[in-house]
Amino acid sequence: MSPSAVIEVDRLTISYGDFRAVEDLTFRVEQGELYALLGTNGAGKTSTLEAVEGHRKVSSGAVRVFGASPADRRAIRPRMGIMLQESGFAGDLTVAESVRLVGRLSGREDSVDRVLGVVDLHRKADVRVGQLSGGEKRRLDFATAVYGRPELIFLDEPTTGLDIQSRDALWEAVRDLRDHGSTVVLTTHYLEEAQQYADRIGLMHRGTFRHQGTVADLTRTLPSSIRFSLAPGAQAPPIGSPAADGLSYTIETFELQADLTALLNWAAARGVELRDLSAARTRLDDVFRAIEADPAPTPTR
Known about the structure:
It is a peripheral membrane protein. It is found in: Cell membrane. One of its GO terms (cellular component) is plasma membrane. By secondary structure, the protein is of the alpha/beta class. It is 32% helix and 27% strand. It has two domains: 5-219, P-loop containing nucleotide triphosphate hydrolases (Rossmann fold); 223-281, no CATH class. It contains ten helices and 13 strands. A hairpin with a 5-residue loop joins strand 11 and strand 12. The radius of gyration is 24 Å and the shape is elongated.
């Protein structure tokens, strides 16, 4: 176990009968970082997280959390907060009672009022959970996960159903937790959130990692794009592939600045207008789409 690693997964394999949902997966999460575990539908990320959280037995390989097996709930659970996609709180408990109950079960200490203030639910403290809106229930899920400022926090689709203001408040709370030393593991379908907040990303497809690294590492696997169009009869540029109409052009490049500079210099020297010019680096969603369009081989059975 690395001294700086909170989570260490080594050659993890999880099977359901003859089907391998996760195969030979290796990664680690360092203390204090935000690691986003992303994947296409059925990629195996839920099974992976359940193994790390101690909720699922592994078929082979090793998982260590804080240097111990996640199955050792007495050692691990008080240090870990989990925000599931659906928490299943009892509808007849009040908001304050729900937070207090989870706090007792976790073994951590905190103030219910403080936690409810973090998610702006203090005015709903005496309201029954069954009377909350979907967004309010999601904020309650987050409140119970971060009760006591746990050292390790799992956030599973944390902003689903939240309005923009609530999303911003949640991420501000996450930043505060990280400032206090918490490590965060995120799963989300909002790729722009992973791109903005994650230190590193593991991108799964069919039970294995297709990419792992920083956002810059992942986006460098695909070229950036320069797009523009020309007036009819204009001189064709020296680079780029024309569309069927012969007027629209796309330049795919791993040297965006150099090729954009060359294109602009060429156009300026000849008085050519580059209409609807745009230049954009690859985004995380582009990498995601490329994986879906080019599927990995089916894992060995």
